[in-house]
Amino acid sequence: MSDALLEVADAHTYYGESHILEGVSLSVDEGEVVALIGRNGVGKTTTLRTILQLTAPREGSVRFRGEELVGEATNAVARRGIGWIPEERRVFSQLTVAENVRIAAPSGNDAEAALDLAFDTFPALAERPNVKAGSLSGGQQQMLAIARGLVGDNDLLLVDEPSEGLAPQIVADVARALQRVASETTLLLVEQNLPLAMDLADRFYLLDNGRVVTDGEATTGVTDDEEIRRYLSA
Ligand SMILES: Nc1ncnc2c1ncn2[C@@H]1O[C@H](COP(=O)(O)OP(=O)(O)OP(=O)(O)O)[C@@H](O)[C@H]1O
């Protein structure tokens, strides 16, 4: 048996009768950053939802530390230490930055230590602890969402399109922050920005039409690979 932290094997996932994932297999080892790339609509978010059991696969398996997640409720999956930073940057807009971070720390953990970690990682948040999350810029909200994932004490963080809709300068800040998060936890990262994905990741999987079409080491060479570029621009 594999000793991967996460192992998805031949997952088939549907929305109603639409067959979206047609046998996705991938693995993530402890400490790795793995990027899931591919153009719009190929099933990247659905793969994350499949892991979280938000949309359970009809066939195939999802194992975390060797244990089957298929059939478990999403909150049980979360309790195993799998965190999710969705594309929509879920933060509590009526709560302050500090409150958002504090409530993301698992109960029993030291909320002030969580704040220290978050503010140390994201100086832009440390400058505005008492600002309502809803009045932050898009980039700051993304950082807050990542900070909440970071203090959640997760062993695996699923991060969906962290750079989407952000200005290039802010993307660089988010990338730096993710790099720091990666030194603390294992990441599975959905990212359409290929240079960013290759910069952050150790390995990548390229999805197309609900299947993994290729995978390998994340290097800058991948960014210039003709075949991969064709898949991404199609
Ligand atoms: N709730 C849903 N009900 C029905 N079809 C859905 C649903 N969510 C997604 N889909 C469809 O499933 C397919 C895969 O979507 P998914 O969001 O996984 O793609 P993606 O690779 O993450 O792309 P994007 O970057 O656009 O989010 C798409 O064709 C999409 O239209």
UniProtKB/TrEMBL annotation:
InterPro entries linked: AAA+_ATPase, ABC_transporter-like_ATP-bd, ABC_transporter-like_CS, BCAA_Transport_ATP-bd_LivF, P-loop_NTPase
One GO term of the biological process aspect: amino acid transport
Start and end residues of each ABC transporter domain: 6-234
GO MF annotation, one: ATP binding
Alphabetically ordered keywords of this record: Amino-acid transport, ATP-binding, Nucleotide-binding, Transport
The keyword Nucleotide-binding is assigned to this record: yes
Pfam families xrefs: ABC_tran (PF00005)
Family classification: Belongs to the ABC transporter superfamily.
PANTHER family: ABC TRANSPORTER ATP-BINDING PROTEIN, HIGH-AFFINITY BRANCHED-CHAIN AMINO ACID TRANSPORT ATP-BINDING PROTEIN LIVF
Protein name per UniProt: ABC transporter ATP-binding protein
